[in-house]
Write a structure and sequence with these properties.
The chain contains eleven helices and 17 strands. The protein is of the alpha/beta class. The protein folds into two domains: 206 residues, Medium-chain alcohol dehydrogenases, catalytic domain (Quinone Oxidoreductase, Chain A, domain 1), CATH 3.90.180.10; 128 residues, NAD(P)-binding Rossmann-like Domain (Rossmann fold), CATH 3.40.50. Its cofactor is Zn(2+).
Length: 352
Amino acid sequence: MDTMKAYVLDGIGDLNLRRVPKPIPGKDEVLLRVIACGVCGSDIPRIYEKGTYRFPTIPGHEFAGIVEEIGANVDPGLLGRMAAVFPLIPCRCCSSCEIGDYATCTSYDYKGSRSDGAFAEYVCVPAWNLIVAPDGISGEELAMAEPAAVAFHALRRGRLEIGDRVLISGAGPIGLMLAQWARAGGASRVLLADVDDRKLDFAKANGFTDVINPASSDVKAWVSELTGAGVDLAVEGAGHPSSWENCLRAARPGGRVVLMGNPAGPMGLSQNGYWEMLRKQLTVVGTWNSDYAEMPKNEWKLAVGAMAEGKIQVRPLITHPVSLDDLRDAIAVMRDRSEFCNKVMWTISKGV
């Protein structure tokens, strides 16, 4: 039996690198040789606190690879092609799937949490989930397609318009991609807030100079000074109550607020925060995942195309490219925050 190296989550906090059977593609699947897989912020609680939906599981849902084998029903032209992978596998039976709204499928599978993902040398995925790479894009950039599509979806939910002033609360990888998308979409000003000065310094190094640390400065006063009435659109990307409230306070009357940060705990709102929504008649919307269907709704194809054309730059956001063998140590660095990380990614270019 052919085997491969993979990180197997055997229980909460019990992540082990070992050899496991190499998967075999089903009739509608391809076998992908993984060339890069990013570590999402959600992977940290998934590995160390909450667990996956079953054990054992191979985590990893931000990935790209090369098609090495195909199932009986798959186009042979995919062999040898590099592709990103939409990790959600819809049930195709629920009311959401009937209208192509796969992100809100009620009975979905998901690579890296509900079934085996790409902290491994190989993974099997349905051919339908592949976004074949255009010319001029690397495997590492392709592996950033998932967070890039999520960020793009959030701004579409917020109805970004040319000339908008935008506040992004949370300056991690998706926050910086939100900032890039906002600028590319015609925002007149992009502001970033985060309680970690290292993230703000990194944002400035990547061209975003309007930054603030809410732990030491008043966000509403700062935004008012820079914009006058407030921002047209605020995106909450930190998953923290104070971040949500800062977005409400920073928004202008009649403005929009998008909630996208995964909450680390209860998301309480003060009475004054609630008044902000009422008195300013704010539009507050949620966002989840991304649209993956036929164009023009396929935000993955739009994201991959934008990366290939240089409209957004994701390679500088990868601060910790590592080999598969070194991935567990890099994940621990993220967990412990022992050094600054923006995006940790295992990649074959690091000697696997």
